[in-house]
## 1
Amino acid sequence: MKMNEGVEWAVHSCVNLCFVPGEAVTAKRLAAFYDLPTAYLNKQLQALTRAGILSSTSGPKGGFQLAKPADKITLLDVVVAIDGADEAFRCTEILKAGPGADPKADYRKICLVSQAMRKAELTYRRELASQTIADLVADVEATYPRTADNTRRWFANLKS
């Protein structure tokens, strides 16, 4: 399974927005933080806005900010907003073409390969759903204590 690089950008943007609470940050400023293409990051931020993860404000003081508390935004929420809710594995029931196949059987349900793949994906989704942006922020602050202040300073200096 391969995630869109926009997932990484979106998660980092959400974490950075936690370090500047109450401040709307433009896509241009968020993109500049990691030297990302603004137009592409803006598409990810718009997807997060459509999903209710971010809110956006237009105008001179406009930009993006979290639409709800960071402890209410899971990594799965972000992944689904960027990559969609479709399952990674799609059983096409190739067993129906095999010798001795039952054309009436639903191989998506009885195929052991399909079951194993779905079980793995469920584990993956549960893990993403168990981690919030607030959890990441806490881990960042515990591991790299200067990050929040450095991020706030960087955004404050960029304004001038």
Note: The two ends are 42 Å apart (CA to CA).
## 2
Amino acid sequence: MSNIKQEMPLLARHEGEWEGIYTIIDAAGNVIDKHHSYLIHQFPENGSYPYDQINKYTWEDGKFEEHHFPATYQDKKIWFDTERLQGYAWEVDDSIIILWFKYKALPEAHMYEMIHLSSCRNYRDRTLHWFKNNQVFKRTMMQEHRVK
């Protein structure tokens, strides 16, 4: 049995369902995309992975995407290696998680995401910086609230 919840207590506090808005801007600050999100964070008791995340995205025009991100656990980090992306996340303090990853379809780029959980555990603010050629080329800002 993994001790992920004991060794990553902040990650454990993210367990549940979150709803929010993703706003993506280019390097000049222009909005290039905006859509709704519904994320599920879970720690399955049985199965191949001690952590699992499901992201559902909906756009105003009806477009819908769903992505699954199971993760392994080692050395106080969760490790993702899915068909879509590869990366890992770690806790910085009692309110911040940092995630480094890269999309397999964009091998020349990588991302850093900062995830802040409020002290009441009901709100999250996240910022994602997209890097290519050592420069930020876009950013994603996410504001979420706990649904369950």
Note: The radius of gyration is 15 Å.
## 3
Amino acid sequence: MTQLSTPHEGRRPPNGGPKAAARNRAALVAAAREVYAEHGLDVPLSAIARRAGVGQGVLYRHFPDRTAISAAVLEENVRQIEQASADDTVSFDDVLGVLTWHLTESAAFIGLLHDDGAAGRSEPHEQAMVLSRRVERALRRRLPAGHRLEGADDLMLAVAMVSGAVTGPARHDRERRALAAWRLLGVAVGPVRPLGE
């Protein structure tokens, strides 16, 4: 008698090991960015798990709460900005395009971290400050000499102003407002897209 290659009903599929864990984590981060951008912070965490194609248990193994998943999304954003700035073939305008994409996709997370800091929870606020310093270092690495944002506080003040302008339920509205803010500041921005696209 030939054995079927499909698993028996009720039996778990084989564990994918560390590779599956890394894939699941990456899928959860991407799903969180999308779901919160589309529906705001009040969406249930189960919606993130569904979008990522994993169970809620997998989500909670990686991210015990909203703050943890928002921190992971923001860490990924900063890492991509750092990677873009480290690439000598990428212009400052293009690095600003990557930054702007992340601002438009992650506006809800930025608000969550600032709300936690304002509510007396210092850990998220401190983390936001660390991420902000990393973004500044990355941007300054590519900032051309004589650029209008070269002043001591000008660069991050401009980023904060653009970040504050990124509002609205629809992604295209957030992007439009971000680009309008850069225009008002007299700053050219490359294509608004994630790193590698």
Note: The CA atoms of residues 73 and 189 lie 23 Å apart.
